[in-house]
Structures are given as C-alpha cells and as structure tokens.
Amino acid sequence: MSQLSERPAQSVVGVPLPHESAALHVTGEALYTDDLVVRTKDVLHAYPVQAPHAHARIVELRVKPAYDVPGVVRVLTSEDVPGVNDAGVKHDEPLFPSTEVMFHGHAICWVLGETLEAARLGAAAVEVDYESLPSLVTVREAIAAGNFQGTGRHLEHGDVEAAFDSAAHVFDGEFEFAGQEHFYLETHVALALVDEGGQIFVQSSTQHPSETQEIVAHVLGVASHAVTVQCLRMGGGFGGKEMQPHGFAAIAALGATLTGRPVRLRLNRTQDVTMSGKRHGFHSRWRAGFDDQGRIVALDATLTADGGWSLDLSEPVLARAMCHIDNSYWIPNVRVDGQIAKTNKTSQTAFRGFGGPQGMLVIEDLLGRCAPLLGYDAMELRRRNLYQPGHLTPYGQPVRHAERLEACWSEVLRNGEIARRQEEIARFNATHPNRRRAVAATPVKFGISFNLTAFNQAGALVHVYKDGSVLINHGGTEMGQGLHTKMLQVAATTLGVPLERVRLAPTRTDKVPNTSATAASSGADLNGAAIKNACEQIRERLEQVAGARLGISPHDVRFNDGIARGLSGEAVRWEDIVSAAYFQRVQLWAAGFYRTEGLHWDANAMHGEPFKYFAYGVAAAEVEVDGFTGAYTLRRVDIVHDVGDSLSPLIDVGQIEGGFVQGAGWLTLEDLRWDESDGPNRGRLATQAASTYKLPSFSEMPQVFNVHLLEKAHEDGAVYGSKAVGEPPLMLAFSVREALRQAAAAFGPAGTSVDLPSPATPEAVFWALEKARSAETPAHATGGGASPSHDDDATGGGASPSHDDDATGGGASRGRDDDASGGGARSGEAARGRGEAAPSPSPSPSSLSGV
User: Fold this and answer.
1) What is d(CA 459, CA 481) in angstroms, rounded to the nearest whole number?
2) pLDDT tens for residues 166-213?
3) What is the enclosing helix (H) or strand (E) of 617?
4) Non-local CB neighbours of 714 within 8 Å, separated by 6+ positions
5) Which of residues 52 and 777 earns the better pLDDT score?
6) pTM higher than 0.90, yes or no?
7) How far is the C-alpha of 248 from the C-alpha of 87, rounded, in Å?
8) Known catalytic residues?
9) Inter-CA distances, 240 with 71, 129, 180, Å
10) In whole angstroms, what is the distance from residue 259 CA to residue 265 CA?
C-alpha cells in the first residue's frame, strides 16, 4: 500500500459528514460573488450589446447614443483593450468582435452604468449596422460544407478490416445527439476593482482561478502578479465555469482599470444561456461487427463534435470521447476518427464528463439497437462484453481492477432483484395493452485524470497558528460538490486533530499559484494529495518536538484527536506541542505539492496511459411508458458505484445521485433547439429559459432510489485510498434511456429494435413506440442468430449488407427524419438522428407507418 493511500485506523476521512457550508446554503447566509456588490462602494454595472445574427459583418458601431442615456459612464469596445483582444486559450475568441459576429447573441461591446437599468438602457441605445453572412447552424450543415476546426484525431488498434471480414454479423448506422445547457443556479458573474497601487483584484465565479488570472492579465497587458483572482464558492459549475468565466472577468477588470471604479458583471439567465457554451452535441457514423456469441469483434466509427464558433476545449473533449467510446466493453479491433465542426453557435465547452458521455452514448446506443437484431436480451449482451482482467483499452492502457465491473453488475442484479422484477414486468406488459414497463442495466468505466498530463498537479498552503488552530489553502474551487468538506477531513486526518480545529480559506491565486481547473473529477485527488503533503511536512516537524517532550523516538509519536502519544501511553496536547515548537523556532507552515505519477500520453498517436485509474459503476433503471402520450415514469433506480475508500460517504452518495439525475436530464428531457430556418432569427437559441428548456424536477425523480458504494474497493496510489466521484455517475443514466428504448420496443412484437433519439423526450418515445407497434415480427433466429451481413439478406430480418456502397447504412434517414424503427429495420438504421421519429405532433398515416 502506498504512503499516499494508507489510512490511519482512527481518521476523520471516511466519516459521513454534511457539506461544510450546508447550513449557510439553506439559510441563505452563504456568500457568492454577486453578494459582495452590496459590500462594495461605487460599483458600476456592465451590460452587453448582443448581435441579432448568427453570422454577420459589423459595418458600423455607434456608441455615442449610449452616452446620452442618464447614468451611462463608459462603453467598452475593442479600441479600449490595452493588451490582447482575446479571451480564449486557443487565441481564437476576440473579447470584442470588432469586425465579425459569429453567433446569435455574440456581445460586441459592453456598457457601464451607475445602475444596471442605466447600463441596460445604454446598451439598447447603441447603434450597430450589420451585413448578414451565410451561417452554419447544425453539425450536419458543417459536415456537408466541410467546415471544421482544430486538429482531428485518429485512434486505431488491431486489424479492423480483417475482423469485419470474419464477423458473423455486421451493423452500421448514423446517430446524432444533442448537447446540454449547464443551467447552474448562479449565472456567470465577476466583480473587479483596482487598489491604490494598481493591483487588480477580481472576484469571479470560476472553476479555474489561475487561468482567469492569466486571461485578465494578457487582456490588460500586465504581468500575472498584478492580478489576483478569488473564488469564494460557486452556485454550480458542471464544467461551464472552467473556461467561460475568463472573458467576463476580463471585461469587469478592463472596466475597473479604465474608470477607477469597481465593476460588476452578472449575466441574467437569458444572457447566460445565449452567450455561454454548452455540452457538445455530436454526430456519429459507425460500423460494428459481432461474432456468433454476441461479442463485439470490431468497431469503426467517426465522431464529429459540434464545437460552435471557436475551439475552447473542443480538442480535449473530442479526445476523451474517442478514449471512452469503448465504455466498459472490450473491443479487440477499433478504428475511431474524430473531427470538430465549426458552427455559428456559442462556443461549446466542458460539461460534466468532458466528452466521455458522448463517446459512451455511441456504444450504448449501438448495443441497445443491435441486441434485438442479434436475438439477445440487451442486459445479457452488455454483460458478456464487459472488460475482463488483463484486457487493454484501444489506446493501450491496462484496465486495472476490471473485476470490479462484474462485482458492481452482480451486486446491482442481486440487490435490485432484477430477475424477479423482469418476471413481474413481463406479466404487467402482457396484461396492460396501453402501458409498458422495462428495466435496463448499463455499466460505466471512466478514466480519471486530465487529458493534458501537465494539468495533473496541485498545490496547497497550510498554516498552523500558535494556538494550535489550522488554516488550509488549496487551488481547488467549491461549486457545491463538497470538495472543501473533503479537504478539511484530509487535513484533520493527516495532522491528527479534531475537525473543528481546521478552517479553510477561499481559493485565491496569491496563496496557491499556477493551479489547474477544478475539473476532470480530479479535485479531491490532486488537492487532497497536496494538502496531505503540506500537513505531513508540519507533522514531521512536530513529531520531533513531541518526541523530545515524551522522551521517545519521533517515529514512535502518533497524533490523534489533538493528542500526541507514544508507545508508553504518555500524552501531550496538540496545542502544547505547537506552542513548544513556536518557541523552538520550528516552521509551522508548509507549501504542499502533488503531481500524479505514472501518466504518459501521445496525443498525436492517441496511445498511452492518460488516466491514473478507472472509476466503475453499474445502474439499473425501471421505467413505465404510457402508450398514448409517450410520457414515462422512472419507477426505480439501483446503483452500485466504485469510489474506492470514500473520503466522505455522505458527499459521495449525494454526488452519485446528483450526477445520475443530471445525466437523465441530458438523455431524456433537456432539448436544446436553435432556429434552423432561413428567417431573420436563424441561429437564435429558442430554449432560453426554464420555461422552454425542461430540467429534471421532483416529478422526474425515481420513486425508489437505491445507491450503494462498492465495498473493499481501496485504490492504491490515491489520497487515502479514495476515488473520484464527480463525473462518472452521470453516465449511469444511460440505463434510463435504454429502459425507455426497451419499453417502447415492448409495444411491438418480440425482438423489435427501436431507434430512439437523444434526448428521448416523451414525444420521441411516443413516435418510437408507434413505429414498434407497426413493426413486423423480426426474421432472426433466437440466441444471436441474426443473418450475417455478408449475405444478400443481411442482418436484422432483411437488413441491407453493411458493405454496400452506401456506407451510411443503405440510405438511412438522418437528423429529424420520421423513419425511426421497427423489427425489420435495415442494418444501416440501427441508430440514427436525434430528432423525433415523426416530423409533426399530428402525423399523417404514412408517417406513422414509416412510408
């Protein structure tokens, strides 16, 4: 067992504690960035001037009318930038687009006013002449136009073509699925001021204070040491505040620098939704080969991420999607190509899972669609393809602890009484012609670490004061996920003091520099190890003092619950040891550092070991679908998830529940819609608020929700044997979508294969089940006897051979076509577009029949 993962017998880590700010959250006493405005004198308010075009040239910008509005102090434009007019890490995001707007809602200038209303009226008074330009709104349009950005990637392992030639069954398909709005409770906000020495202080709701500092500095043309960024806490982030806050903080800092007054920039909900990036939607084409035992032998896929107007983090998002297209399944022969489409939308960005969910969704959709065509129960097909010990991923990383997949799977099936419930479901379906139930189980294998090896480092600063109290600083940010709670537990455990002895300071760039974003589920791993390192330095010094006091070797000193003891049992209080150390001039503070070891990654070859370890989990979801409306109820969810030796079990269970629900929202409810017409509102996001963008609510919660942490799951080489928990649970929600697919298919004859869009809204489920109702009995043998695709009569009951000239699947419809599913579907239709299965809420008889 490594020193990093070794846990003392009596420790504060592992104790189920509430969130350290829980009481402040529920009473409203917790301070967020915007709460600081009322504590700041003479604040100016910023308001954007947003472009009403998806793509246009700025012919003329007239800001003078804004100054005629009472209360307007300044209008910020590109001409005011003293440094670099760019807020992107790829230098492709002008902070002020001086010549060209790239998406509907793009802010071209900002108005500063004495009040928010004055700034709003001033923004309305700004006059802009535009020349409309052609725009690409959908990923399909970008693919057709060949409009891509960034670096494409290629991942290949094994002999793909030979595997297809020998495969018993080959299917191919096309699948497009939507992105997701972060919809954090706290929108983007920054408050900037400049002191008498010209030092710029920015309060920002940011997951990456160091990068916010860097962007602000280069916009202002100053060194990083002239900028300090602090993050008190965030009202949610989910990845949406990893890159996107930097430009808003730079606007506030620029305004404060030019006016000499504090500037507050807070987006309202509509501005936040229309100006900030979302989860990347993806388009995929795939071909999959299976042997006679239902095992995947080959996969050939192309993934196209909808990057929006600039790169942001699209390249690493795409890379992670490619690395996770296998999810939990061993595929011996793989070829995956990735590319990033450039569209006239907001620049899409990080979102919980960071491409992993998009890659996994492709394989889960593929398996769910192909299972009935192969004659297998989908649950059985998934289980027989799970990774086994000794297997490698397509990019060459050993899958350590692969047996935990089977352990999670078995525990879910056993504790969830899946076999008994499947019998009950069969009886229910046989006696309820207008309602159907189904239960589906899906696994998760998610790699933990940043794609870029350099980001896998963290720092901490720990102070012990003369009275024995402890203050910790670290580079991680708190967005409600409980990171600070875990860090307090790590510090208290390492120093051997009661939890109440330890306090945590807000995250600031002048305390811990050059930190990585709180992202990639690595916050506790990186910052916890850095805090442990700092605390160990202090504890070793105090052991010398305590050893001398107790007359024993320093190696025999043990600190626990604020008491230093030796083997003889004699004890000295922590406070007394600390006081003695001070008078002996022993250093009582330490800077800690941690770098994740064992990582190596060749991004060009897409090969190496980019992840410290894998987090595993399995979920089973049961749904009931109404055959008249497609409305559904999530009846029960059973989850077993691997978090190693949990640092804080109550926090981890909350993260699993929250991640699962957010994933279910993405997959079944949250439907982003841009205006794709050729009218004046082309490119406008139609789903701008909670009234038009459906978020999960209490009515969508499972009636029974069981979450268990996998036992005996110690992770050697991670802080106190724990594992990350932030992102992996989101992908457990695939079980909900797959259960909906199976319930919809149950309206048709046995063996019906259903093509289900994502998100699988009630409308989409209705059209899918309508297709199932009209399906003919599939012409395949049971037990994996689908006809081989090499024959003239290909797989899935008359499916076209996948080796046809029509590589997309024999002319399979794309996008929102109404040709959805059915037992006799051609193989190329095994998975397709994200849209509803029919084009209108009142379909004609022909569209219902799939003609």
Assistant:
1) 19
2) 999 999 999 999 999 999 999 999 999 999 999 999 999 999 999 999
3) strand 613-626
4) 1, 5, 644, 645, 721
5) 52
6) yes
7) 9
8) 727
9) 32, 31, 11
10) 14
